[in-house]
Amino acid sequence: MNTPSRRQTHQVKIDHITVGSESPVVVQSMTNTDTADAAATAAQVRELSEAGSEMVRITVNNPDSAAKVAEIRQRLDDMGCNTPLVGDFHFNGERLLAEFPECGRALSKYRINPGNVGKGAKGDEKFAFMIRTAAENGKAVRIGVNWGSLDQSLAKRMMDANLASPAPQPPEAVMKEALIVSALESAEKAVALGLPEDKIILSCKVSAVQDLIQVYRELAARCRYPLHLGLTEAGMGSKGIVASTAALSVLLQEGIGDTIRISLTPEPGTSRTQEVVVAQEILQTMGLRSFTPMVTACPGCGRTTSTVFQELAQDIQRYLREQMIVWRLQYPGVENLNVAVMGCVVNGPGESKLADIGISLPGTGETPIAPVYVDGERKVTLKGDNLAAEFLAIVCEYVETNYGENGRKRDRSRIIPIQTA
């Protein structure tokens, strides 16, 4: 599979994770618990980590939350979860880092938004304190500029200069340029304050797809810092998924982007892990990473009035993803497994032969049998009411045989796997 050439950047070490250049694009997420509740926050970090988030950001917005960061880190260590924690600082970050130095030491990376650190000389002092604290603790920093909280003094300066220009640009163009300038100038200040270039990641988040693509293309052309991608306030459900996929896929195809987050608004009662699954599936379907075996399934039509193939595809995909918590370590390379669950004889046998394991279920009016193909060869024909259980047993046997300690596909990963310590 041909994959896009990655943009060359500085490489940033964040604990056991390497970000930038040829290193895998890193999946990131964020908790929505109250950080002051150490038990709930640690539990959600672990849940996100098990779903595949390789770094997790937590809100550090008040003394109660800052006081609990070290405890959260200890709880995670006690659970055997080594996922790096990113501290999300905004208006009072310098005060919290000064009052709770153990918070700064427990975090693996700081996220600083230059637009809301403060104004003028006072803002410069706050920014400098946070950067120096990161440098003293050997921590990486993401300088994260956001469309909704852009430094207004910078925006006004650039708007005034634009109005005085003999050929003024549209206000939207000036605002996009201000985002980029804010990130680059803040990075320059950080380096001057003693933070090494290989400890800096940049982001310039906006909420419109075309704007995000334009801003990141320009930012990527003007620096060698790794870039964090994300469509801010992407939204809920299919809207958020589609918008994020559209924006990030274009940039990733151009080799732009070193960490990603899908900022979905969770539907009431749903797990926060959905945004992790979406991020993984973007990377995997593009051939950039491999996280979990994928199931190829037909959409169904008038030939497939039975729901058996739909239910089987859903059950198999869910089972494979759940098993990856164990399989990731037990069966290296299994994340590249391809399973096909097809609904009739039109494309069923062909797709099944192309997959590692495939089943072609009977469509409407077809003989009630289901041929199973393994590595392109027809292995067995299933019948009766236990198709799902029998096919799942074949999948499990295939995994153990081919990806176990002596399996022929062990360590033959075709796509960069998940990063582990």
TrEMBL record:
InterPro entries: Dihydropteroate_synth-like_sf (IPR011005), IspG_bac (IPR016425), IspG_bac-typ (IPR004588), IspG_C (IPR058579), IspG_TIM (IPR058578), NO2/SO3_Rdtase_4Fe4S_sf (IPR045854). Keywords: 4Fe-4S, Iron, Iron-sulfur, Isoprene biosynthesis, Metal-binding, Oxidoreductase. It comes from Neisseria bacilliformis ATCC BAA-1200. This is 4-hydroxy-3-methylbut-2-en-1-yl diphosphate synthase (flavodoxin). Residues 9-279 form the IspG TIM-barrel domain. Residues 295-395 form the IspG C-terminal domain. Binds 1 [4Fe-4S] cluster. It catalyses: (2E)-4-hydroxy-3-methylbut-2-enyl diphosphate + oxidized [flavodoxin] + H2O + 2 H(+) = 2-C-methyl-D-erythritol 2,4-cyclic diphosphate + reduced [flavodoxin]. Belongs to the IspG family. Its EC number is 1.17.7.3. Pathway: Isoprenoid biosynthesis; isopentenyl diphosphate biosynthesis via DXP pathway; isopentenyl diphosphate from 1-deoxy-D-xylulose 5-phosphate: step 5/6. PANTHER family: 4-HYDROXY-3-METHYLBUT-2-EN-1-YL DIPHOSPHATE SYNTHASE, 4-HYDROXY-3-METHYLBUT-2-EN-1-YL DIPHOSPHATE SYNTHASE (FERREDOXIN), CHLOROPLASTIC. Converts 2C-methyl-D-erythritol 2,4-cyclodiphosphate (ME-2,4cPP) into 1-hydroxy-2-methyl-2-(E)-butenyl 4-diphosphate. Its cofactor is [4Fe-4S] cluster. Gene3D superfamilies: Dihydropteroate synthase-like (3.20.20.20), Sulfite Reductase Hemoprotein, domain 1 (3.30.413.10). [4Fe-4S] cluster binds at residues 298, 301, 344, 351. GO terms for molecular function: 4 iron, 4 sulfur cluster binding; 4-hydroxy-3-methylbut-2-en-1-yl diphosphate synthase activity (ferredoxin); 4-hydroxy-3-methylbut-2-enyl-diphosphate synthase activity (flavodoxin); iron ion binding.
